[in-house]
Amino acid sequence: MRPYRCTNCRGSLSSEETSWRCDDCGGQVSLYKERFPVFYSLASLATQDASLKENLYDGMLGRFYSFLMPFLSLPVRPFARSVGQWLLYVIVMLLLATGYTSGIQVIAGGSPGVPGTLFILAAIILTVLAIRNPMFGWLLVLAVPLKLNHLLSNFRPENTFIDVHQRTIEKLAAIDHKLKVLDVSTGTCNSLLRHGWLSLNAEYFGIDLSETMLEQGSSNCADAGASVSLALADACDLPFEDAYFDIVLNYGAINGYSDVRGALSEMYRVLKPGGTIVLYDEQLYQGANLLENLYFRKVLSPHDVISECPVDSIPEGATYELHQVYPYYFLCIIKKTIVSNNEILVNDLGD
Length: 351
Ligand SMILES: C[S@@+](CC[C@H](N)C(=O)[O-])C[C@H]1O[C@@H](n2cnc3c(N)ncnc32)[C@H](O)[C@@H]1O
What we know:
By secondary structure, this protein is an alpha/beta fold. The protein has two domains: 73-152, no CATH class; 161-346, 3-Layer(aba) Sandwich (Rossmann fold). Helix content is 40%, strand content 21%. The protein has eleven helices and 13 strands. Strand 3 (28-32) and strand 4 (36-38) form a beta hairpin. The longest helix is centred in the first third of the chain and has 25 residues, at 83-107. The structure holds S-adenosylmethionine (SAM). Residues 49, 52-53, 57, 185-188, 190-191, 208-210, 213, 234-236, 251-253, 256-257 line the site of S-adenosylmethionine. Residues 49, 52-53, 57, 185-188, 190-191, 208-210, 213, 234-236, 251-253, 256-257 line the site of S-adenosylmethionine (SAM).
């Protein structure tokens, strides 16, 4: 049976020719390009969510996500894994420098010639792009000083991103039934396909608001030979029944939602008792300097509603462990409590 539920009444859905229909309230679920069920309407989205979708993830960042996302983390990624991005950075800076120099020559009465005119044009286009997308403008300014700062930084995580993942996945792999995994805001499915989640004996689901991102996710899953059911849905109104999933993942998205508490309570609702939520998003480490603060606010998190792990929004009764795994990112593992006869059976992460 289909796991999806009507977002109006949680009724089950039956197939019609080009859409699905709720058996209880009669509500229709359309199919985007006959592939992804669509569980929200633009009109029903909060302004922040609609703006993120339209301006960021359906825009330039979304279309070139796999290249531009690592580009934004240029100063903090290992050099060997960002050679292409550094190359782009150098080309952009050279174009800007040559364009501005030619522009100054023109102002001083010189003639730029054809190459000079082209450089001026390129510099104008890049400047307009940087002004329209200020995080890229700030990145151009901050990349080199921040790279040097990063090389000298003495930030060392108590628990690394890889260690926390390994521990979590090992525990989940020991469960003897077939698991159900939901990746909320799966985007390009990048995080679902990495970090070891596919090693589990599990059925996989992913939802996202952006068609641009989900189309890339679908093709990335096909390339990886991974079977993932994808749908267009709002994290704040998940189209699933209660207590359906063993694991709910959320990478790089929670801090940007208009209603962080509502989204977390939705993830908790669809989670089985004893199930696990994994959150990963921006959070600046304690003791960061001015440059790191500037990079964090202007480049990594300008679109966020909150800028740290939303521990205050974790549903009551849940237990969690929070790790500052990178200078700019946290990883939080949340466990849903099992209560039986008013007795808590799982109350910590060491069960
Ligand atoms: C930074 S991307 C992260 C994608 C993916 N999880 C990853 O780690 O690569 C954030 C994603 O959140 C999605 N998103 C933003 N607001 C959302 C919402 N309210 N409901 C569902 N998805 C949302 C965006 O469309 C985008 O794909």
